[in-house]
Design a protein that fits this description.
The structure is a single chain. This protein is of the alpha/beta class. 38% of the residues lie in helices and 22% in strands. It has an eight-stranded mixed β-sheet, sandwiched between helices. Strand 1, helix 4 and strand 2 form a beta-alpha-beta unit. Helix 2 crosses helix 3, helix 4 packs parallel to helix 13 and helix 10 packs across helix 11.
Length: 341
């Protein structure tokens, strides 16, 4: 939970963040101002996340990355230059990130996140991991979930990408004009409930201030549940499921495939999920496989990084519906559907 003890936002900050305050309110901006965010690795995707949340005025950003800048990093990153090649990635980005907003404290750790224990993650309000293996995502998510810390895992695979979100248990507020059909306290979906409703009078109109609560699965549970989520859906709905979903899960199973081709592995994953194999084409699996496990393209990084940054700000502000709980970006169809698994 965000520490709100550091209050007293200044007049200069109110002027700087005026548009955000008008949108979310002063209390939400104060929560952002007190937030500590951790980025695990700093590639093209994380560049976009860092840019957006630092400009929005979070309290502090810590970046941990033990790798050095390579020539390939210049294709999707804008915080490093040719002069950065050979330097630690976190340290090379530090100065340019600080220039975005001097009010935000930015720290760079040229260390291996795998050497850190649970205590390392405890001070952070949001943890974002990218460019990692499935097993590394699982390990960090287990720690974050046990600490009740929001966790984002993201990856870019050429024209494709994914985001997994675990906000543990999160309450947020939705404001809307009061309609003839009143909201009711109780379950809305399998993961979301309405826990409080207030009616506020504004002039001649009334609005409802609705508090909702989302409950999230860990990554390990979500992957296990995937085999049952699509059972019972109509054929038309199944044909609209993004092919990126089974491809990502098949990629994570890739180590056990033996001599099986990646295309066949994706088809097998479709069958196990109850999805029609017709959503998968040879061209798609070839393009996907050629970009595995990570290939970052600037346009894809901008889209997916923007989605995650906005969701982080929504979480910190406790406003608007958060992502629940997967996003799969398909650059072939310019789509990024959300699935609750």
């Amino acid at each position: 939970m965000v520490d709100e003890s550091n209050k007293g936002i200044s007049a200069n900050e109110i002027a700087l963040y005026d548009r955000q305050i008008r949108l979310w309110g002063l209390a939400a901006q104060e929560r952002m101002r007190s937030a500590n965010v951790l980025l695990i690795t700093i590639g093209g995707f994380a560049n976009e996340v860092a840019k957006n949340i630092v400009l929005a005025g979070i309290g502090s950003l810590t970046i941990i990355d033990s790798r050095t800048v390579a020539a390939t990093d210049l294709a999707a990153q804008f915080f490093v230059t040719e002069e950065s090649i050979g330097k630690n990635r976190a340290e090379a980005c530090l100065e340019n990130i600080e220039k975005l907003n001097r009010r935000v404290t930015v720290k760079a750790l040229a260390e291996d996140f795998r050497s850190k224990d649970d205590n390392f993650y405890a001070p952070f309000d949001v943890i974002v991991a990218s460019e990692l293996t499935f097993e590394e995502y699982l390990s960090i998510n287990e720690i974050c979930h046990s600490l009740n810390k929001p966790f984002y895992a993201a990856g870019l695979i050429g024209l494709y990408g994914y985001v997994f979100v675990d906000l543990c248990r999160h309450r947020f507020i939705i404001e809307r004009e009061k309609s003839n059909i009143s909201a009711k306290i109780g379950p809305e979906t399998s993961s979301r409930s309405i826990v409080d409703i207030k009616t506020v009078r504004e002039g001649v109109t009334s609005k409802e201030v609705i508090t909702k609560e989302e409950n999230y699965n860990k990554l390990s549970d979500s992957v296990k549940n995937a085999t049952s989520v699509f059972r019972g859906l109509r054929s038309r709905a199944l044909l609209k499921v993004s092919p990126v979903l089974p491809a990502v899960l098949a990629m994570w199973d890739d180590a056990d495939k033996g001599s099986t081709s990646f295309h066949e592995l994706v088809l097998e994953k479709c069958r196990s999920l109850g999805l029609p194999v017709g959503i998968i084409s040879d061209q798609f699996t070839t393009s996907f496989e050629n970009s595995m496990p990570t290939t970052e393209l600037s346009p894809v990084a901008a889209v997916l990084g923007g989605i995650v940054a906005q969701d982080i700000l929504n979480y910190l502000a406790a406003k608007e519906q958060p992502i629940q709980n997967w996003v799969f970006l398909d650059g072939d169809t310019f789509s990024s559907p959300i699935y609750c698994i």
